[in-house]
């Protein structure tokens, strides 16, 4: 791809998270791509929600996590009393199941738990997000269908619905549970193959998406951004089964897939769009634009960060329109990354495996882990009551050509004081650079394992934030 002269490379693959940079083919190859002005967008991995599971965390790679979308593939449940509920389902069989009796089962773990369920829809407790295995159990027991009740909100990604089934949210689960337990002859009808959009809240952090910090490069906050990665309609090999139903395989040129491998191409596509609009921008400038303009609110106006932090969703979900005109960018190039490598205390052979130039190693003088990056991260002990971290950054004005002033706005962080110097940056022309420093000071021991905030530069016309 480098030899072909591409502008963007999308990599939905990774190696073990503990693989050192100098042994990671993706990190080494991405460094070579960066030297040629090629942006590499790579998947963060699917080992969430645990922290420190992230892959592809090199600072010269755009690391992309995954979010949900505002679309629901449904199984509509209509009870015998007329009450109707919209559950989640990817059942590919017949479209409707009409007026069948309900059978309640506290457990659908095995067919031994299910007796006399023929021509009945089984109500199963405790559905698991990672699978809908209960549908296989019900099918084995000759049940006509299943309602999977939950106690927590889940995003169903499994596609192997082996019988007509719908997964209900906790509120609807409670209503259905009450109906089936109190009615003398409870019945239900099911309707499939209906799609609803505008589902709220969305986007949310996809719980499978790997979280940072990154092994080996923890001084860089990763992932960088998140993008849609749940139940994405994707091209698929027509020679590989796209779905199964009761032992029968179904094939298609497209199927629904989930993972950071689906999110990564979204970000790569935006990078290509930005490169087309701004051909003179470096890879770092492009993903800076994506990071500083990313959405941090869902479609209800609440933070996506509810239940997730920057080690899960980075700067937020990419916003193509805003990224086209970010105002300021945090740029970096080969020299900056070489200084970063110098600070990792690599051997000559390890350094050369990445940079492929031993003379750079000879010129290393301490190096610098404080890369010119559009994010900041620090680590401290939970009982630590003092400490100061200082960061230096350079921003480039890519907005309007003419006098412009940007003012720093900071959110509060519990237990910390944050200061920016100077508070105002004034530019006289486009592409002019300005320096600022950010100081983070501990005021008292942390009560929460992760504390975060935001620095926003707002221009005097509030056109760019």
From TrEMBL:
InterPro entries, alphabetized: Peptidase_S8/S53_dom (IPR000209), Peptidase_S8/S53_dom_sf (IPR036852), Peptidase_S8_Ser-AS (IPR023828), SBT (IPR045051), Subtilisin-like_FN3 (IPR041469)
Listed GO MF terms: serine-type endopeptidase activity
Keyword Cytoplasm: no
Domain Peptidase S8/S53: 2-298
SUPFAM superfamilies: Subtilisin-like
Gene Ontology biological-process annotations: proteolysis
Keywords, sorted A to Z: Hydrolase, Protease, Serine protease, Signal
Pfam family, one: Peptidase_S8
Cited PROSITE patterns: SUBTILASE, SUBTILASE_SER
Subtilisin-like protease fibronectin type-III domain residues: 370-463
Family: Belongs to the peptidase S8 family.
PANTHER family tied to this protein: PROPROTEIN CONVERTASE SUBTILISIN/KEXIN
Protein name per Swiss-Prot or TrEMBL: Peptidase S8/S53 domain-containing protein
């Amino acid at each position: 791809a480098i030899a072909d002269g591409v502008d963007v490379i999308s990599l939905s693959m990774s190696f073990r998270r503990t693989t050192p940079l100098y042994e990671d083919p993706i990190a080494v190859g991405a460094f070579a791509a960066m030297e040629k002005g090629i942006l590499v967008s790579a998947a963060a991995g699917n080992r969430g929600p645990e922290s420190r599971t992230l892959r592809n965390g090199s600072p010269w790679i755009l690391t992309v996590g995954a979010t949900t979308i505002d679309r629901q593939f449904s199984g509509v449940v209509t009870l015998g009393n007329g009450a109707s509920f919209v559950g989640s389902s990817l059942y590919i069989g017949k479209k409707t199941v009409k007026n069948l009796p309900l059978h309640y089962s506290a457990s659908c773990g095995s067919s031994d738990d299910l007796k006399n369920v023929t021509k009945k829809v089984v109500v199963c407790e405790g559905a698991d997000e990672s699978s809908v295995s209960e549908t296989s159990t019900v099918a084995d027991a000759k049940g006509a269908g299943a309602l999977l009740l939950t106690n927590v909100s889940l995003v169903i990604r499994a596609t192997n619905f082996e019988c007509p089934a719908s997964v209900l949210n906790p509120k609807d689960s409670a209503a259905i549970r009450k109906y089936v337990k109190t009615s003398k002859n409870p019945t239900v009808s099911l309707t499939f193959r209906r799609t609803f959009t505008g589902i709220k809240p969305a986007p949310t952090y996809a719980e499978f998406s790997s979280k940072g910090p990154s092994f080996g490069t923890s001084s860089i906050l990763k992932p960088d951004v998140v993008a849609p990665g749940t139940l994405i309609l994707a091209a698929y090999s027509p020679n590989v089964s796209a779905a199964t139903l009761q032992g029968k395989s179904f094939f298609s040129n497209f199927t629904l897939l989930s993972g950071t491998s689906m999110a990564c191409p979204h970000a790569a596509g935006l990078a290509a769009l930005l490169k087309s609009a701004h051909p003179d921008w470096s890879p770092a400038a492009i993903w800076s634009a994506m990071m500083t303009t990313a959405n941090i609110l869902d479609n209800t106006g609440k933070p996506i960060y509810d239940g997730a932090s920057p080690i899960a969703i980075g700067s937020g979900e990419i916003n193509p329109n805003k990224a086209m005109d970010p105002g300021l960018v945090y740029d970096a190039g080969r020299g900056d990354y070489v200084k970063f490598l110098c600070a990792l205390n690599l051997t000559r052979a390890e350094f050369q495996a990445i940079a492929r130039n031993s003379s750079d190693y000879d010129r290393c003088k301490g190096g610098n882990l404080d890369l010119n990056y559009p994010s900041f991260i620090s680590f401290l002990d939970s009982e630590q009551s003092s400490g100061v971290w200082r960061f230096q950054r350079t921003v480039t004005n890519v907005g309007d050509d003419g006098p412009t002033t940007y003012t720093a706005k900071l959110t509060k962080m519990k237990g910390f004081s944050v200061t920016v110097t100077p508070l105002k940056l004034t530019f006289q022309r486009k592409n002019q650079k300005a320096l600022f420093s950010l100081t983070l000071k501990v005021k008292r021991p942390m009560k929460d394992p992760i504390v975060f905030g935001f620095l926003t530069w707002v221009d005097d016309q509030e056109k760019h934030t």
